[in-house]
Structure formats: C-alpha cells, structure tokens
Amino acid sequence: MSRFAPSRIYLIAAAVALGLAVFFGWFALGWAPAWIACGLFGVTGTALMLLALRPVIEVGDSALAVGGRVIEWRRIRRVDRTGWISPLVVDLTLDDESRVRIIYPGDVQESGRLFHLLRQYSTQALIDGVPSVKPWEGRPKEAAPKQTIVRAKVRLMSEEDEAEIERLYQKLKIAGRLDP
After folding, report:
1. pLDDT tens-digit profile of 26-83?
2. Both 43 and 89 in a single domain?
3. Strand residues in the chain grouped as ranges (E)
4. Which candidate among 15, 18, 68, 103 keeps its CA 20 to 30 Å from the CA of 48?
5. 64 and 78 together in one domain
6. Structural domain contains residue 23
C-alpha cells in the first residue's frame, strides 16, 4: 500500500500568506489601499490551507482510498488528467457515471508516481480517453489497410557526370590520397 500525504510546503506557505494578510491588515488601518494586499494574501492563504488539509490518498492492490471513501479499482471506468500537475488534479468516472475529483497537493515526483499508480491499477478504464495498454500486449492493431507508395527515381545529374564521378572515385581509391 502506498500513502500520499499532502506536502508540508503548502502548510508553510499558507502560514506565511496568512501572516502577511495580518500584517497588511494592520498596515491598512493607516493606509486604505493596503486592504487590497490584505485581501489577496488572505484568499491565497486560505486556499493554501485548504490544500494542506486535504485527506491522505492510499493506493492498495484492491482499492483506492481518499480520506474515508474507498473506491475499488474495478469500478473506475475513466481516468482524466486536467492541466494541473502540482497539485495533481485527476477526474475519475465510476461505473455508475458518478465523478470523483482527486486533488493531491504534493511535489511533482510524487504526483507523477500517484498518476502512474492510478494508470497501472485502473485496468478497465480509459486513460485520457485511450484504452489502457499493458506493456506485454503492445499497441492495438489498426484495421486500415496499408497503402504502398511508389516513388519515382529522380535523377540529380546526367549519366556522363555519374560516370566521371565513378572514374574519379576509382582513381582516388587506387591512389589512396587526393593529391596528384
């Protein structure tokens, strides 16, 4: 079983952002435009805190556990990536057409490892719309017939020039050097 806990960086960044929000809030008591910075740091700190408090994701041989919810691998029909890599955001579609969004706030390597495990264990699922391919099975064969392309030979020089080049090559080969 593999456990994926949120990175501590998010908690540290949330504490820094909320501390800056308090500082700018105090500073805004004397200068009103500082409320903008206070609000932006407050929103950013809150978002980072929500990411830092995400539940642990556990990947086992029979199921995926996100917090208290357990999802069996055979129930997953589709695994779709979003554009987010860190934090990793993946949408799972289950056999009853319900959707589960998995958000993992970790570093890039751990996010890649988690997505690799999701692909590996979701054997009956479409991965980003493509059927899961096992390494020992190879790629699915295409049914379209192959077309043969006949290419015409293009002459770059005349026959006399080719004969002259061949004669010079043989002479060079016998002499072993280029100087006369």
Report:
1. 999 999 999 999 999 999 999 999 999 999 999 999 899 998 899 999 999 999 988 8
2. no
3. 2-4, 57-59, 63-66, 69-72, 76-81, 88-94, 99-104, 126-127, 130-131
4. 68
5. yes
6. yes
